[in-house]
Amino acid sequence: MTEKNFSYGFETRSIHAGAAPDPSTGARSTPIYQTTAYVFDDVDHAASLFNLQTFGYIYSRLTNPTVAVLEERVASLEGGRGATGCASGHAAQLLALFPLMQPGDEIVASKKLYGGSITQFSRTFKKFGWNAHFVDPDDPENFRKAITPKTKAVFLEVLANPGGVIVDVEPVAKMAHDAGVPLVVDNTLASPYLCRPIEWGGDIIIHSTTKFLSGHGNAMGGVVVDSGTFDFTKKGKFPSLSEPEPAYHGLTFTETFGDLAYTIHGHAMGLRDLGPTMAPLNAFLTITGIETLGLRMDRHVQNAQKVAEFLEGHPAVSWVSYAGLKSSKYHSLAKKYLPKGPGSVFTFGVKGGYAAGVKVVESVELLSHLANIGDTRSLIIHPASTTHRQLSPEQQTAAGAGPDVVRLSIGLENAEDIMRDLDVALGKTVK
Ligand SMILES: *Cc1c(COP(=O)(O)O)cnc(C)c1O
User: Fold this and answer.
1) For residue 162, what pLDDT is reported?
2) 210 Cα nearest atom in ligand 1
3) Which of 42, 288, 317, 406 gets the most CB atoms within 10 Å of its CB?
């Protein structure tokens, strides 16, 4: 599907964007190009590929035709200019920041992030000399206050993991732009079906495609989408993009590639030198998953709403944090940013704290006790004893993962069955 066809609706692009019947065989579904390398026509062709003068395939660490279909599809669904597929959501976060950061630079990030992201930013990225400042996103002003001349990006999840929290992204985007830096949004929990952050000022969108995009809990992956509208040449803040690159004979990405500079840098520098490439099989599974994204997300949201309402009325439950509930302080932000529903990942508190939380996850039978979200299957976890256990107690509570918190990722089963399973498990906490 070529760019002129991008006026097709979301569901149509979910199925067709980036893909076409295979020109040599007619295969209708995207083939898994399970190859590491690609034959050159001749030495001149090889040279022009290596010099980035011709688009084409050299080696699958940089580009692969199956991964390219996924990249074009997600870019289309997010309303972006281009995308870089990679091995996981964490790889996407690394690749997203890599073109922006130098040692000593800073990012300002929401405190309400996936626990693994907080660890990645606060510990591992520190070893590159990248410093993260975490702020409470409930007041957008906190982002502005934390921005310094060394800040190179603002990072947030509109709909935040572990759940129920929505960030008012529009004013934060404006603050980032006033400071001359891009807003990077992790849109994993919403998926582009429920929210398209570029429409609210987001510049770079990342996904763990492992979750709702692939949708079946069977393929790891990540993607970085660039809106193509952020000016990386302003104020000389991003020399990796706007100054000559010695590794490509002094080529300047912004000058040579214009609004594709960030995406081409993602492949030609990020994937080439850091190496977290997506496997073609995982790209294939994710492309297949995306074909049903809208249908699945509608059902995820319907089921989540039913389960959240059921839990809110349950005597063993002290609170439910789901933005689809009128009791949520994020209910009005949900209507603005996620009008089709605030996803299917949310948290609730069990009366009886840590011990009761452990009891619930150990008592469910239909729900799976595991560390993932965005599967067809309903999933449950007790963050304080698992995903968020590396964080300090203060960080746990700040991230919405205190001792009594149970996180759900509501799947596509019959909603009555999910509620019955939770009811039986919750009954065991009060005995
Ligand atoms: C899972 C997740 C990640 C990390 O993705 P992986 O594919 O597991 O590396 C990042 N952000 C959010 C919101 C996630 O849910």
Assistant:
1) 75
2) 7
3) 406
Angle between helices 293-312 and 415-427 (to 10 degrees): 40
Pick the closest to residue 165 from 353, 392, 339, 398 (CA basis).
398
Per DSSP (E only), the strands in 269-353 are 317-321, 345-350
Q: Which pLDDT score, from 0 to 100, does residue 161 have? A: 79
b/e map 367-392, b = 16+ CB within 10 Å: bbeeeebbbbbbbbbbbbebbbeebe
Distance CA 304, CA 382 (A): 18
CB 116 within 8 A of CB 387: yes
Residues 24 and 415: their CA atoms lie apart, in Å, by 45
Task: Flag residues of the chain having pLDDT under 70.
Answer: 1-6, 431
CA distance 305 to 312: 11
Whole-number pLDDT of residue 63? 97
> What is this structure's pTM?
0.96
Pocket of ligand 1, beta carbon within 6 A: 88-90, 114, 116-117, 157, 161, 186, 188-189, 208, 210-211, 220, 222, 373
Which of 159, 210, 286, 379 to mutate to test ligand 1, by most ligand atoms within 8 A of the CB atom? 210
Task: Quote the distance between the C-alpha of residue 431 and its chain's center.
Answer: 40
Structural domains of the chain, ranges and CATH numbers in brackets: 10-100+182-289 (3.40.640.10), 294-427 (3.90.1150.10)
Pick from 70, 86, 90, 218 the residue to mutate for probing ligand 1's pocket: most ligand atoms within 8 Å of its CB. Answer: 90
DSSP letters along 165-217, please? Answer: EE--HHHHHHHHHHTT-PEEEE-TTTHHHH--GGGGT-SEEEEETTTTTT-SS
